[in-house]
Design brief:
It is built from five helices and four strands. The chain is α+β, with helices and mostly antiparallel strands and 167 residues long.
């Protein structure tokens, strides 16, 4: 009788652990929505979020909406932004107009995603095109602009047409 009791105990223990093992393998998981919709790849998400943040900043700059521009920046940049954004050389200065701004390239950099843009800035009747590089990084669970720097010369496009604004 002893071997029978051991066999019964082992079978009972196996049957008790079977549901735990199946859930651990994903079988019988009740959250089928997440299984049906795969998560974005990290690189794709970084590119998408970076594009969204910079485009929102460019739109705010064109509309002279300082609050909307500030909301795209990482918290550490807010004080400096408040001091310089509407100053004589700030992105939101009253005498600057931004008739066109376009994202030209997004790539990974050492400090985050580097989003290269071409911004047309008009002062009076004079318009110049300025390349800028925005660094976008993840801050906790959100994405934000961590830096802005002058870019290199604007590369000519193969068709000779200026880049159009990205959506």
């Amino acid at each position: 009788m002893r071997p029978t009791h051991r066999r019964l105990a082992a079978t009972a223990a196996g049957l008790m652990l079977l549901p735990v093992a199946l859930v651990g393998c994903g079988i019988g998981d009740k959250d089928e929505k997440s299984a049906a919709k795969p998560a974005r790849a990290p690189a794709e998400e970084a590119t998408t979020r970076s594009r969204e943040r910079v485009q929102a900043y460019l739109d705010a700059m064109a509309a002279k909406d300082v609050d909307a521009g500030r909301s795209q920046l990482c918290a550490l940049l807010h004080d400096g932004f408040d001091l310089g954004a509407t100053g004589p050389n700030g992105d939101f200065a009253d005498h600057f107009q931004v008739p066109e701004a376009a994202i030209t390239d997004i790539r990974s950099g050492p400090l985050g995603q580097e989003v290269r843009v071409s911004v047309s800035v008009a002062v009076g009747k004079r318009t110049v095109i300025r390349p800028l590089i925005f660094t976008v990084t993840r801050d906790g669970s959100d994405w934000c602009i961590a830096g802005e720097a002058p870019g290199g010369p604007v590369a000519p496009t193969p068709t000779g047409v200026a880049p159009t604004p990205a959506s």
